[in-house]
Each structure stands twice: as structure tokens, then as C-alpha cells.
Amino acid sequence: MTVSVDLRHRFEGFTLAARFEAPAGLTALFGRSGSGKSTVVNAVAGLLRPDHARIEIGGRVLADTERGLWLPPEKRRIGYIFQDARLFPHMSVRQNLDYGRKLAPVPPGRAEFDRVVGMLGLEGLLARRPARLSGGETSRVAIGRALLAGPEMILADEPLAALDEARKAEILPYFERLRDELSIPILYVSHAAGEVARLATSVVAIEAGRVSGQGSAAQILGDPGLTPLGAREAGAMLEARVVAHHADGLSEVQAGGQVLWVPRVDRPEGAALRVHVRAQDVMLALVRPEGISALNVIPAVVRDVRPVGADGALVQLGAGMAGAQSTLLARVTARSVSALGLRSGLELFAVLKAVSVARDQAARPD
Ligand SMILES: Nc1ncnc2c1ncn2[C@@H]1O[C@H](COP(=O)(O)OP(=O)(O)OP(=O)(O)O)[C@@H](O)[C@H]1O
Asked: Of 116, 237, 123, 239, which Cα lies nearest the Cα of 181?
């Protein structure tokens, strides 16, 4: 099932003109604050009626303003997951979930209720009131309530933004499961490159109310012209595979024909992984450095050097064997650009100070 969205809207001082398709899986709407992500989500949800809109889910038309068609939010069959979970405080977790269930055109039976409760690990929480849940537990209940309403699509607007790092780490695997186990599209708003690298099947980059690029997470995050966050948050994503686990606590993975060492990952040999490397965690050296503690030193070639701000640059690198290239980004100072003579085609070494690893999307049955 695919969602297709075509929106035009004018606020004073801001024009939205966004058109994209979101396939099954998780599509991240990725852009800096004020770029228009929430306006897109609100229009898709039916909470904002734009000047022009055509929105379709798997052939079902939710809005076509040319023809005067505009379904109200409750007729759209969209599960909405907010930043603040908005649970009913006077109801138990079970009653909150039941509320979602009763919204479904065909309320799911006991088996489906149990499946959602099991998937989100809510078994032990059903009798509790929201006031006695942690932030992460609250988010899981909100996700469950959205799923039980039998949605044809999930909209999640920065669902992790209100959580601290530990709670984020607790919830991210549940979004991975939604992505891998549901056959409906998930539109997920984020301005966090790490989250997008970990979760997105495809990415729609939004800049100043327009779609500036669409592609896989690796393509969008690795392109300094498309990654919408400038140098500070930028980072590339590599598709990798587990090769072996070693007794000293490290796992060996292959990315683009290149060996990388990462802290031990709990995945079998051969499993697909995503490795996220932030641009600010990549150093560049003209000769292979020796006697340093960084484990990952990769031969690379400069593809692009793009000035960022007054005194910095984002360097796009091709790394790995010919034919299996990966893209990395490095954040360097303007001084380093001239001291190292950085230019397209220059061969050098990328020193990765830190990498983070997530499981890759499971193969979809369809
Ligand atoms: N109701 C409104 N009236 C006028 N301007 C609006 C309205 N809603 C949003 N805007 C403007 O539209 C632009 C896009 O806002 P939007 O909330 O969609 O961005 P965003 O990418 O979701 O940002 P954030 O990540 O900060 O939530 C902003 O300039 C905002 O000020």
C-alpha cells in the first residue's frame, strides 16, 4: 500500500509545495525546524485544510480539493502518534487500548488485541493508570492505541522528541518492529539524523516547504546537498553485514567491501545491519595513521567538499572497494580543507571515532 501526497498551501511568510509518495515501510519526513513537516502531517491527518490537496492511500482518496473532496480526520483511518502521548488519565491502560479498538471500523478481536499487547510488551501494564507509567511505557501504550484502531496508515510526529536518550533507546526497537511487521505505510517526522538512519525505509527531505530530495536513508543522509541539517547533525549511513564475533567483545562487519569493528552486536553472522557514522566523528588523514586508538581507519576518496557556515566544510567521501562503495561524510574546519588540500579525487584515510549500529529492516514478504 502506497500513500501519495500532493499539497500546496500558503501561510503569511511561508509557502508549502510538497509532493511525494510513501511506500509500505517507514518513510521519514526529515528536515530542520520550521521546514513544514508538521504542516504536511496535519494536512494528511485532516487537521489542516490546505489551499490545494490530493491525498491517496492505496487508491482510496482522502482529499481532492479540486473535486471538493475532504474527508474529516475520523474518516481517514489514520493512526496518529503524538509527541505527548495524550492518554486518558482516568482510564487504565486496558481501557485506553480499548478506546482505540472501538474506533476501528471492524474492532479487532481478542487475538489481535493480544498480538498488539505482546508486540509492545504491555502485558504487565494493563491494569495501571497512565500516571503510574514511565515515559517510555506511556509511548508504547499510545502506539498500541493507534494500532488497535485498525489504521491504514500511521502518522508519527516526532514521537520520541519528549523522551530522554534512555527512553528513546527503549522505544526505537518498537518502531523497528512496526516497520518490519506492519504492511501499512508509516510517515515518521524527525529532525534527528540518527533516528532516520536507524528507522527509515525511505526518506523525504523537506526544506523551506519543498521536497528537496527523496531516496533511501543511505542516499539522502550521505548527500551533503540533500541532508537538511547542515554540518552539525549530518552523518552517513552504511549498509553492513555481520561477519564474525570476536572474544574481545567486538564484532566484525562488512560495509561496501570494507571491514569495520563495532562493539559486539547481538545479531547472528550474516545478519544485515545499519551503521550510522556522524560527520563530526570522522577525521581525515593524508597518510594512514599508526599508533592510534581508533579501530576503524578506512581508505577513501574525496567526492565533494561543501562549505558550511563561515569556517567549516562537509566532505563527502567514497569508501570501500570499487563496485561496492559506501558514502561517508566528514565535518572539518575550513583551515583543514586548505591544510590538507582537500579536493575531489584526493585519496586519503577516514578515521572513524565512533559508530552506532542498528539492525536493518527485515526482508519484507511483499
Ligand atoms: N497556522 C499557521 N499560521 C501561520 N503560519 C504557520 C502556521 N502553522 C505553521 N506555520 C508556519 O509554517 C512554517 C512551517 O511550520 P511547521 O510546523 O510545519 O514546521 P516543522 O518542520 O514541523 O517544524 P518543527 O520541527 O519546529 O515542528 C513555519 O514557518 C511556521 O511558522
From this structure: 116
